[in-house]
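re: ur question from yesterday

yeah so i grabbed the chain u mentioned. its 258 aa long if i counted rite. heres the sequnce exactly as i have it in my notes:
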Amino acid sequence: MANRQVTAEGVRMIQRLLAILMATTMMFSGCIGWNEPSSPFYGAEVEQGDVPPFSLDSHDGNVFNSSDLQGKVVIVGFIYTRCPDICPITSQNIAYVHSLVSAEHDDVAVVSITVDPWADDPGTLAQYVVDQNLSWPHLTGPVEEMEPVWKAFGVGLTTYDDDSDADGVVDGFDICPDTPANEVTDHHGCGMDTQEGETDNSTAGSGTSGRHALPGYWVDHMTGTVILDRDMQQRVFWGDMDWNPDFVIKDVETLLAE
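ran it thru and got these structure tokens back, copy pasting raw so excuse formatting
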């Protein structure tokens, strides 16, 4: 009997301790929630994001002024036409978002800004717009006019001309490293004899591609897509590798509702 009485008292003691612990946890959680409100955005919230006024050349041959964006929620993307991988994907993600939000809102705008103005003149950008089936301004200009825009958006930009295997294709474009010396390569730097190079895309020993000559430099840029509010303030950042189009749409709608 004594053992049963002790066990019952122990159970009641444990119940009282659990009740106290739960109450304390709820109070502590409430304090944390009060002091640290969550962000309204799915992307990364930008705290300091002024955008200086700028005028750049559009792919359609006109001059584009940033003042045309005032009063709109703006999606700003950074691309370059020679980008072999992420830029076309980013462009299509933006196109998907734009097609959905513009169907219901006429105060959403999109612009894309090149990070390779050395190669991306208006005509080159115009062809990219056609190839990608896009519908918004793609901007370029002299480097000295591009640099303040890149800086405002935190674009990290590096160009280099390394060609480790000396096959005539700079490393950024070369998907087949260590090509044997003097072997004919294709557009991607793959040897025709030892690396299964594409026969319709051979350099044929000329140093140029069967499709088009590659500039002797590579552009490496660290950036993403930025969403501006109606006052031209940067509010949300989406990294190129983090894109979730449905969540980007929700962030745009949050800014539209402000």
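noticed a couple things. Helices lie at 2-35, 86-101, 122-132, 143-152, 245-256. also The mean pLDDT is 76.
anyway ttyl
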